[in-house]
Amino acid sequence: MNENSNLNAIWIARWNERYSKDEFAYGEEPNNYLKEQLQKLNVGTILFPAEGEGRNAVFAAKLGWTVSAFDISLEGKMKADKLAKNNNVTIDYKVGELQKLNFEIEQFDAIALIYAHFPANIKSLYHKTFDKYLKNDGIIIFESFSKKHIDYVTANEKVGGPKDIESLFSIDEIKSDFPNYEIIELAEKEIELSEGLFHNGTASVIRFIGRKKTEPKKLFR
After folding, report:
1. Which of 5, 44, 96, 177 could form a disulfide with 1 if both were Cys (CB 3.0 to 4.6 A apart)?
2. What pTM was estimated for this model as a whole?
3. Distance of CA 209 to the CA centre of its chain
4. Residues 128-172: pLDDT tens digits?
5. CA dist 142 to 4, 16, 25, 65, Å?
6. Angle in degrees, 0-180, between the axes of helices 55-63 and 74-86, rounded to the nearest 10
7. What confidence tens digit (pLDDT) does each residue in 57-79 have?
8. Helix H segments across the chain?
9. Taking the CB of residue 127, how many other CB atoms lie within 10 A of it?
């Protein structure tokens, strides 16, 4: 087993352990920013990467969206399926790494990246892959911890979030990863989190709403 396989196994075990409890790690209610933004959009197809126990995906399905989601944690999927059943909705939830899940080019009207903190060595690659899966004029909804959050989680572990700065985000990184987007909102903010067991307290986040621009056709070489 190579180093990447070892790291991946550790990553999967960590999230399976977190999601194996009866309680929902981040609660059953949707993230506030996602809720606010999603209700502004016409329903369509949406993807939830790193969706964990399904709180955001289930909320979207209740609004009438056709929902796809994925995570590396089987325990997360089991909790999400249970939550969907309890709310009388259906979500298409896959388990695995992104490159093995066979989503289609321009499949989605929206992609919601809510605390989708992928390992530092793949996070930009994943963002650029999501761009391919998003339709022209599609929307990215993004809320995740900023690089300043390292000070917040050091002071209060209950607020949650990665403790390595490379896994956190900056405004410049978002601009670089999503260059062909109309920026509707892109800001670093201090907010109060109260989400289940692991997101509680003052946090620093990056919020981004972006619309994928249709690239003009070239008339000449």
Report:
1. 5
2. 0.94
3. 13
4. 999 999 999 999 999 999 999 999 999 999 999 999 999 999 999
5. 27, 24, 20, 18
6. 30
7. 999 999 999 999 999 999 999 99
8. 3-19, 32-38, 55-63, 74-86, 123-133, 149-155, 171-177
9. 22
